[in-house]
Design goal:
Shape: elongated
Catalytic activity: precorrin-2 + NAD(+) = sirohydrochlorin + NADH + 2 H(+)
Number of helices: 18
Distance between the termini: 71 Å
Main location: membrane
Number of domains: 4
Radius of gyration: 30 Å
Low-confidence stretches: none
Family: Belongs to the 4-toluene sulfonate uptake permease (TSUP) (TC 2.A.102) family.
Strand content: 5-15%
Order of helices and strands: EHEHEEHEEEHHHHHHHHHHHHHHH
Helix content: 55-70%
Structural class: alpha/beta
Organism: Flavobacterium hankyongi
Number of strands: 7
Protein name: Probable membrane transporter protein
Length: about 475
């Protein structure tokens, strides 16, 4: 079948739509039209109206609806008709009568009864993209819409407005205006090409620098420190250092594959190695401070940070982190067994929450209440348990339907301030007696970083989160049995 569709963008201020059918399809078509214009002229006729559609009608009193069968008179004040009943014969009859009156018809999931299609629509301010598969696969059209919505930056409308001002202020004929606009917007393509060249150049420079530094420091150290001195120094390194390299490596692999779980994985693993409780959290936050700082700065640079949300997460989070660190230092010194039990129970709860995240369906956007309390709780439990800021704060915001890009960006930058506050508190109270743990975690994480980057997105997110959750729960149960 040849694709003969001609895309047209219809102004909806004066268009009148008739929807016949009040089930799920009728609900979907009604919501689709309302997303384009909240004041759009709709008349809905149906013998039965679903409860969800009734809610939509209650919130949009301008929609005229009749709970009765379709009547020929319903076509008299309609410009476009959408049939959404589950009876093909009724849909076909309505189309026949509408076409006699020169009215165009769309029939859900019945291309043969359609004069036009309602494609999947990407809407970003003044930018609007309609996607159609010629009626072959609405699912694919929806997936493409979701991909474009995620890829197109939120501030694209600012660029459109700026270009509109530039066009209006430009003097000259249409040809001159087009030439100027082409020159201005060409940077979008040239920037992509130059970015790829820069990446190749930076990669080459980095590799040369690493080789040079390795040779330089290797030769320099060989003239100052003998092999005997190195052997003696190596014998003085605590055995826990090598265990921490393994823990850091494993935690970074998990975090790279899933996008969260670094702190919880480190905490549960280090408890099994018998590391003292304050040293666990202090080491994790010191090691994580570097990665969260780089990650947060990158998100801020690319515009992924909501400044208002950052304020309400970071400040209460810092207060919570300091409180959690002091609480752990006090409990860790005097009530070690009880604290192990609390931490093991806490990590088990985190594991259960991760399972809930894995099976969570797409949730509509809801208002986030008590953001400061969320930040304080996340900081407190993160410092006290050595991890949990991501599973607690990120999952809560995502569960409220917030856009993942801004949630991850804002939470990542806020995490830097939280980990910094916790690290300073642990440093002032404990000093640097646990340096080998910090260095081991950083070294293990650095070794795993390239492999973790390759794993990112390769493992299905639900599967990866479930694997982390089960590991955390198993470690937590084992720790509880160990202290009982």
């Amino acid at each position: 079948m040849t694709n003969t569709l001609f895309p047209v963008f219809l102004k909806t201020e004066t268009a009148r739509f008739l929807i016949v059918g009040g089930g799920n399809v009728g609900l979907e078509k009604t919501e689709t039209l309302l997303r384009q214009n909240v004041n759009i002229n709709i008349k809905l006729v149906a013998t039965e109206i679903s409860s969800k559609l009734k809610e939509v009608l209650e919130h949009n009193p301008h929609i005229v609806f009749y709970q009765r069968p379709f009547e020929d008179a319903d076509l008299h004040d309609a410009d476009f008709v959408i049939t959404a009943t589950n009876d093909t014969m009724i849909n076909a009859e309505i189309k026949r009568k509408a076409n006699q009156l020169k009215i165009l018809v769309n029939s859900a999931d019945q291309p043969d009864l359609c004069d036009f299609y309602l494609g999947s629509i990407v809407k970003k301010g003044n930018l609007k993209i309609a996607i159609s598969t010629n009626g072959k696969s609405p699912v694919l059209a929806r997936r493409l819409r979701e991909h474009l919505e995620e890829s197109i930056p939120e501030n694209i409308n600012e660029s459109i407005e700026n270009l509109n001002v530039f066009r209006d202020q430009h003097k000259g004929d249409i040809k001159a205006k087009l030439a100027s606009l082409n020159e201005v917007t060409s940077v979008l393509i040239d920037k992509k090409k130059s970015t790829e060249k820069d990446k190749n150049y930076k990669s080459l420079v980095f590799q040369i620098a690493v080789v040079f530094l390795a040779v330089f420091f290797g030769y320099g150290l060989s003239t100052v420190i003998s092999v005997t001195d190195l052997n003696h120094f190596a014998s003085e390194i605590p055995s826990a250092f090598f265990a921490m390299i393994a823990v850091g490596f494993f935690a970074q692999i998990v975090d790279g594959a899933v996008g969260l779980g670094y702190g919880v994985t480190c905490a549960t693993s280090m408890m099994l190695f018998g590391i003292k409780l304050p040293a666990i959290s202090g080491s994790i936050h010191t090691a994580e401070m570097f990665s969260s700082g780089i990650s947060g700065f990158s998100h801020y640079k690319f515009g992924n940070v909501n400044k208002k949300l950052l304020f309400w997460l970071a400040i209460p989070g810092v207060v919570g982190a300091v409180s959690g660190a002091l609480l752990l230092i006090y409990l860790g010194n005097k009530y070690e067994t009880i604290t192990y039990g609390i931490l093991a129970s806490y990590t088990m709860i985190i594991g259960i929450r991760l399972i809930a995240i894995a099976f969570r369906k797409k949730i509509e956007k809801k208002k986030v209440n008590n953001t400061g309390v969320l930040g304080f709780s996340g900081g407190l439990l993160d410092a006290f348990g050595g991890g949990g800021w991501g599973p607690i704060v990120t999952s809560t915001l995502l569960a409220k339907g917030r856009k993942s890009k801004y949630v991850v960006g804002t939470v990542s930058l806020a995490e830097f301030f939280v980990t910094l506050a916790a690290s300073i508190t642990f440093f002032v109270s404990l000093g640097v007696s646990h340096w080998y743990i910090v260095v081991g975690l950083i070294l293990g994480g650095s070794l795993a970083a390239p492999l973790a980057a390759k794993l990112a997105g390769k493992l299905p997110q639900r599967t990866a989160i479930l694997l982390v959750a089960f590991l955390v729960i198993i470690f937590s149960i084992r720790m509880l049995f160990k202290i009982l």
